[in-house]
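Changelog-adjacent note: as of this version, every example in the card shows the full chain rather than a window. The one below runs 161 residues end to end.
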Amino acid sequence: MANFFFSQSLKNYCGVSALSGDQTISEVIALDPNLVNMSSVGTNSFVHLVYLFETSEAIPIFDNDTSNVWISGFRINKQDGGNFIFIAGRPYRFDSLEENVYVSLKIYDIMGAEVTELVNQKQSPGFYEVQFDASGLSSGIYFYKLKAGDFILIKKMTLLK
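Full-length structure tokens:
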């Protein structure tokens, strides 16, 4: 996936000097204490790793259990180009809030019933983290819906216990 996503200009922007071919790893190891290790199983066991230039502004956030040269995840934030996260071959681009906006984050079950509301307030520009306690939920498919001003994002997630 990463080999198709990264154009030469995006590699230059992020400071990526090389992308690995398909790798099989058992775990993506968090380098940031605010993140958690993630096991790689099933369809997620094939990943792409990156090698960063020493001058890269990218900050490694995940390592892998196979090599000390390649990393499995990084983040980068540039004033002129927004924010970008790469985790094990899967790229994510996001932007921070640019003004005070109403933000809501809700979790829904497979039938569309709201399970919990994690955020429901006006927030100022910046980056936020929310803790999600799923101890009262059973394993299954859920959806989360993030609304920030006019921006709406709905994604599927799988809860395994």
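Structural remarks: The mean pLDDT is 80.
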